[in-house]
Amino acid sequence: MTSYLVQLVLIGGVTSAGVYLLLERSLTRMLMGLLLISNAVNLLILSAGGASGSPPIRGGTSNGAEDTVDPLTQAMILTAIVITMGVAAFVLALAYRSYRLTTVDEVSDDPEDTRVSQLSDEEATTIDADRPQPPGLHKDTDAPDELDALPGHEGSR
């Protein structure tokens, strides 16, 4: 199986451009980066499929080719195209909804995440200890609970 250097450099360039766009804060650029990466992966699968040949149809020949092309790579690319279309539609819907709510295409830092990331470990554990626990949630102890007497329960006696 031979791979051409020009194809691999092109695939690497498209992938790097896609990663660069995916790391931007603009949702539109993130979508474009996602599409570029998926197209680069499709090109990689196609180039890994080997040289072209006769179609995988009984009795079908193409320009006197002796080898038959592998249909698995074509099926994988078609499946990847459909998955990419679904993911792109989902990301586009998220971007549209975000734009309708904030009228900005950029993703900003969440102030609560920024505040929590600046806390030290001791402050974070203190905040968690001071926070009231919701009713019904308690630490598991070896003391019998009222559910222990129910039949079929792991702790039933």
From TrEMBL:
<comment type="similarity">
    <text>Belongs to the CPA3 antiporters (TC 2.A.63) subunit C family.</text>
</comment>
<feature type="transmembrane region" description="Helical">
    <location>
        <begin position="30"/>
        <end position="52"/>
    </location>
</feature>
<dbReference type="Pfam" id="PF00420">
    <property type="entry name" value="Oxidored_q2"/>
</dbReference>
<dbReference type="GO" id="GO:0005886">
    <property type="term" value="C:plasma membrane"/>
</dbReference>
<keyword id="KW-1003">Cell membrane</keyword>
<dbReference type="InterPro" id="IPR039428">
    <property type="entry name" value="NUOK/Mnh_C1-like"/>
</dbReference>
<protein>
    <submittedName>
        <fullName>Na(+)/H(+) antiporter subunit C</fullName>
    </submittedName>
</protein>
<keyword id="KW-0472">Membrane</keyword>
<feature type="transmembrane region" description="Helical">
    <location>
        <begin position="72"/>
        <end position="96"/>
    </location>
</feature>
<keyword id="KW-1133">Transmembrane helix</keyword>
<feature type="transmembrane region" description="Helical">
    <location>
        <begin position="6"/>
        <end position="23"/>
    </location>
</feature>
<dbReference type="InterPro" id="IPR050601">
    <property type="entry name" value="CPA3_antiporter_subunitC"/>
</dbReference>
<feature type="region of interest" description="Disordered">
    <location>
        <begin position="106"/>
        <end position="157"/>
    </location>
</feature>
<keyword id="KW-0812">Transmembrane</keyword>
